[in-house]
Amino acid sequence: MAIIYLLIPIAIILASVAIWGFFWSVNAGQLDDLESPAHSILYDDDEHLIPDDAKQPKTTDKSE
Amino acid sequence: MCCPGCQAVAQVIADGGLENYYKHRTSEAASPDALSATEQLRAEYALYDHQSVQQHFVAEQADGSKQATLVIEGITCAACVWLLEHHLSSLKGVIQANVNLTNHRARIQWDEQHIKLSDIFIAMHNIGYQGHPYHPDKEEQLLEQETKRAMRRLGIAGVFTMQIMMLAVALYTGAGDSLDANYEHFIRWASLVLATPVVVYASKPFFQAALRDLRTRHLTMDVPVSIAIGGAYLASIWATLTASGEVYYDSVSMFTFFLLIGRFLEMKARHRTGKAGNALLNLLPASALLCTDEGETIVAANELQQGDQILVKPGHTIPADAVIIQGSSSIDESALTGEYLPLTKREGDNVVGGTINVENPIRLEVTQVGASSQLSAIVRLLERAHDEKPKVARLADKVSGYFVIAVLIIAASVGLFWWQTEPENAFWITLSVLVVTCPCALSLATPTALTAATGTLRQHGLLITRGHVLESLAKATHIVFDKTGTLTEGNLSLQESKTLSHLSAQQCIEIAASLEAHSEHPIARAFHKITAPRSILAAQQLTNHVGLGLEGIIDGQRFFIGKPQFASQHCGQHLDFSDAPDNRCQWLLLADETQPLAWFGLTDPARKQAAQMIGQLNQMGLEVQMLTGDSSAAVGHIAQQLQIDSVISGVSPAEKLQHIQQLQANGAQLLMVGDGINDIPVLAGAQTSIAMGSATDLAKTNADAVLISAELMRLPQALKLAKRTRANIRQNLSWALFYNLIALPLAAAGMIAPWMAAIGMSVSSLVVVGNALRLTKLGRPDRVE
Questions:
Q1: Strand B350-351 relative to strand B321-326: parallel, antiparallel, unpaired?
Q2: Coil, strand or helix: which one is B235?
Q3: B230 CB contacts (<8 Å, ≥6 apart)?
Q4: Strand locations in B470-610, DSSP E?
Q5: Of B19, B82, B186, which has the smallest distance from its Cβ to A40's Cβ?
């Protein structure tokens, strides 16, 4: 049980680091827009990132 | 495709390989204005290339590129953001383009050597969006800071609450013998370290508000909340230091976290419509055509001086208050007065900045600029209305005010009593009293019910932006509607046509549509909507007689359309309005050189659900009134159609405000529904106000709620939900009071240990939250067939 003397301070430090990171991201404006990032994952605009050998044969637009 | 604008946009989108936009968009984009007049636009946007104009909003980066923040009009959903970002990034010279969906701002970085700012504006215009430079005003900066602060508070409370809960589990499970006293002591200290930022930083707004309340001697919920947080925290510190009693760090931080979430959501809803700063700016055009001895030059509108001569082309907004010195035209003043029909203005007449020139080019001399202009006058009226807005007394605050005083007196006297009988137990018994009467349930009673109801209404298209709305909706006794754009569609459409000759109605409509095809007058637009483009005949020698009508030659035959006196002057019969079939519509006459051909009846039709809604409101016992700036015969007709008995017509914005203030002074609980700029002072002055979704930004900002879906039936539904919410809040409050009445005597008698008090407190809060969740259903929707 004595391990908690070490673990709890570590937990507190980690929480503080998380808070520091959160503050940084708020101040840097990363959380200004809470809506559009949720949608952007759905857009098929990453074709150039897919390796050629992994590409699916192109289907017609409607059948997606 | 509904118009050439959409088609052009679709073309650009398809050419650019951005068809994905259509796959992903979740709401219809607004149809962009006809994309003609590109030359004029180019010249206007070229203004933004000037160094002197740019210095206000463009920042030069270290690598020589430039960066600017723009406000973009026309963004409706996430697909717009995607389209804008991709279209702009694909332009040569644009280094980075980020668009924010929430506040409609774009941050653009570009290389001046490859692309000019005006080209970026035009590129945006081509896909259907209007850009404006963003000048952050003070208010908006404050809003931004407020949001960031609230987020940081929420983050602190959230992260640390989780940590404290983890430690609390250890304390609870190990309570008694299994946990060594040393470990328990250590865990308490760790909890203290974690809880301190939550209390000191995250719950600061509650303490500040409580302090303000004490100073102004007006107790609100913030006082008991502060006492609960502060009291439990201090007691826990005492317990930690003396290694006795109970600690409440988990309750304190959890309570803070939940309350902060509620406040954060409320703030978000408030900010959503809060774009006040740039709304007015957008009403006035950015540029004006200045006439000097050397010719015409485009200047920035805010550089105009009194006495300048300017030229305003048809379809353009008048940049400042002015007097006409040459030409005549009709002016669309709907933004200011709510009248959808343009007024005819001649030489010597005054025109108001922000109104739109409809028909002919006119030359103006500027009479008023800036703060002395009429538009600013409306804004001043608005500020006054805000100040005079009646305060709504809030039930929970009133109850809690007395409650807090009572609790403090009881706690003090209990403490005093035990101090004299058993001094060693006095502190813990007093603490039990304070904890057991902890106003958690009481202070959660209202916010949880309100949050649940607000969320439900938002899902159904009514966005509530001020906290008091639901409470005052439930109390409303009078409901006042604006006419144009609220009860009616806000634009003219062809209602009836009566032929007077051998030609069929369809033929007459085609002739009329061909004559009106090139006019942007609201009357002409009624004809644009009903005819297919291919049935438009070629009309020659079109002549526009301002305020009277049009004439033109089709297939060698001369036709006239317009006021009956004008259209019939060349044929044998002289007709005027008294010859029209009835007075329910506005009648236009079509005639050729020998005989009158047809009457066309135009009206601004009532919205589909309006009559049913008014019926329901009457049934609910509300007094319905119509308050309109319009003074035409159409008012009476609409009132009759919708069965509204009380109508006040032909009033100015100031008189509207006076009318509702009079009603409110007589004790009416008033709900105002409106849309136009002319309604803004009334919306601001009314106890509760709802703006239509199509309303101007400025109107939305000043309303307490926005009816996004434009479905009028949501209003009676909202009123019913508001009544249920009020009932729910009452149940919650009575439960909280009932619980306290039972628990308080037991605690005062020293029969409840602090840990029992903590459990009781949590359970009573859960009951309140569960009851509030019943409001997430709108109930049986009264569907419209």
A1: antiparallel
A2: helix
A3: B199, B207
A4: 478-481, 493-499, 540-545, 549-554, 557-562, 586-592, 596-603
A5: B82
Measure the CA–CA gap between B312 and B629, rounded to whole angstroms. Answer: 26
Q: Which of A43, A47, A64 to mutate to test the interface with B (most CBs of B within 10 A)?
A: A43
Write out the two tokens for B546: 């301002």
Interface of A with B (CB under 8 A): 1, 4-5, 8-9, 11-12, 15, 18-19, 22-23, 26-27, 31-36, 38-40, 42-45, 61
* pLDDT per residue as tens digits for the range B654-706: 788 888 888 888 888 888 888 766 777 788 788 888 888 776 666 666 778 88
| Range list of β-strands (E), B661-768 | 670-674, 688-692, 705-707
Nearest chain A CA: its distance from B203 CA (Å): 16
- For residue B23, CA distances in Å to B4, B79, B387 come to 21, 9, 47
- Which chain A residues are Cβ-neighbours of B160 within 8 angstroms? 15, 19
- Domain B493-603: CATH architecture, name and number where available: 3-Layer(aba) Sandwich (3.40)
Residues of chain B contacting A6 with CB distance shorter than 8 Å = none
* CATH class held by domain B280-383: mainly beta
Q: What is the largest CA-CA distance in chain A?
A: 65
Q: Give the residue extent of every domain in chain B.
A: 4-135, 146-268, 280-383, 395-446+727-785, 462-488+607-710, 493-603
Please report the ipTM that was assigned to this predicted complex: 0.76
Tell me the residue length of chain B.
785
Architecture in CATH for domain B4-135: 2-Layer Sandwich (3.30)
B575: left (phi over 0), alpha (psi -120 to 50) or beta: beta
Q: Would you tell me which CATH number, out of the four given (3.20.20.80, 3.40.630.30, 3.90.950.10, 3.40.50.1000), belongs to the domain B462-488+607-710?
A: 3.40.50.1000
List C-alpha distances in Å: B133 to B94, B107, B139, B469, B482.
Answer: 17, 10, 17, 34, 33
Pairing label, strands B478-481, B623-627: parallel
Is residue B564 within 8 A of residue B549, CB to CB? The reply is no
**Claim: this prediction has a pTM higher than 0.90:** no
Instruction: List the beta bridge partners of residue B603.
Output: B493
Q: Cα(B2)–Cα(B536) distance, rounded to whole angstroms?
A: 16
Reported as a single tens digit per residue, the pLDDT across B348-378 is 888 887 777 877 788 888 887 766 666 666 6
